[in-house]
Design brief:
With 276 residues, the protein is an alpha+beta fold. The protein has one domain: Metallo-beta-lactamase, Chain A (4-Layer Sandwich), CATH 3.60.15. It is 17% helix and 30% strand. It contains 5 helices and 19 strands. It has helices at 46-52, 99-107, 125-132, 221-231, 251-262, and strands spanning 3-8, 14-18, 43-45, 54-61, 64-70, 79-82, 89-91, 113-115, 135-139, 153-155, 158-162, 165-169, 178-182, 187-189, 195-198, 204-208, 238-240, 245-247, 271-272. The strands form 4 sheets. Strands 4-5-6-7-8-9-10 form a 7-stranded mixed β-sheet. The protein has a 6-stranded mixed β-sheet with strand order 11-12-13-14-17-18, with no helix packed on it. Strand 17 (238-240) and strand 18 form a beta hairpin. Helix 4 runs antiparallel to helix 5.
Amino acid sequence: MPLERTACTHCGHWHLYFAGRTPPGCLVCSDVRNALPPDGWDFADVARVAAAVRNTWREYLPGVWGVSCDPPFGLGATGWLIAAGGGNVAFEAAPFYHPDALGFIEARGGIAALSCSHPHGMGALWQLQERFRPAVVIHKDGVRFTKAFRVTWPADDVHEVAPGLTLHHVGGHYEGHSVLYDAGRRALFAGDALKVDFHPDGRPRAISCHKGYHYQIPLSHGEVRHYRRVFADLPFEHVFTPFEYAAGVTRGHALALFDRLLGGPPTAQPVALELL
């Protein structure tokens, strides 16, 4: 029986399943770290998603572009394209890529390596793999969510994706959760290891971390300590998550947040940057 890809319209995660049949449920939404769809499962095929959204893109830092869907689809993630020696790196993915967005990426040299932090940022990685044939690097504990594409390099706890771009396993939010550190730009592609809240004018206001955002499930103290050990070696001044770019959120802010969390009961509440 032929297979086809369909996306959960609630979270945007792509599934590979039998053509003409509805998947029994969404692996991501069924997990405690995401909410269930209030009206039940709805899966959209490629044509339906393509008709529903268009792509936009912009350069956030020199050599760092974000590609998104308008209107947002699923969780509304952004796919990051990072210029690097030896070939561009894509980290996270937009929920869908139209031909013009794929052409934009190709005009900048395509993609040599493709990775992501965890399932909430996987988006349409399968499209990028089909178009550009990059190395696909996912932490070994995240492989179970990758049915819609093929992992070519299961990563251990530290993996150099490209010169100056290193994947670091942090766990916590998801078992295979990893962050990508860009040493040259002093930028951390943090996945959901950090959540940033903003002032109305767009300035970062507060940060938090969590195991489950929708249900405000905090990390354990042991998980926070592991975050702290990894972040301590990564000096950064810019944070990119699958959903936002935050200039001026630094390693110092993150370490102060972790220290604060370790000093009391577990919590997922945001802490104002001015208090860190």
